[in-house]
């Protein structure tokens, strides 16, 4: 069993944070992102056999020898954390200098068309990522003026490698031009930024300089949920997170998510979750749902 380990780099000038986790107690509870003072992205490297992972209360199977990117504020619990290594970073650490979108915080790995995205590794990939694990670990023990930039360089290498592998494994990226795929990604990014206040497709279409019909056609071509469904699903996910992980009332959540009144929010929740708010809270509190 791996020994528990947490190594961390903090950058005082930018509030940048980079953390490396391993060990069987580090992936329990509500997810590594919860204790962080700022939104933080995560790469999880499963070095062992396939295992279950619950992400925002939905169970998935993580393949053996694979990588899983997770965006900030996701909650997750793994079945066998002793087989995992995770690297976490916030925007201030890696994206403050606006890295190219494909290998940054708003890139394909975090705002592509498939989530969660399990990236399978072959033997050579496993060897390379394992080597990188050792380099990260060594670098995190150093303390000099080069440490931050070296960690950013190493992280960028991992992101580029993971992006290449993910695109090879994603049929849509082999069949359709980057322009259409980027439209999906940019739409998802805009929704992430504005879903608490903007609930209409027209807002996002205007921001992208596209007609709503054009968006609908591209989403249909790539067999994605409709643009309006993307908005509804994101609002619903955030509502469930508030209900499950906070003590906020339905009224408070309604205003947090941009609804005119609690009754409107209640109708929205029941229509899209299939149960009313009180039923959801009751089920979330039972052992069977954990």
UniProtKB/TrEMBL annotation:
**GO molecular function terms noted in the UniProt entry:** DNA-binding transcription factor activity; sequence-specific DNA binding
Give every HTH araC/xylS-type domain span. Answer: 185-283
Protein keywords? DNA-binding, Transcription, Transcription regulation
**Family annotation (SMART domains):** HTH_ARAC (SM00342)
User: Which Gene3D superfamilies does this UniProt record tie to the protein?
Assistant: Homeodomain-like (1.10.10.60)
Q: What is this protein called?
A: Transcriptional regulator
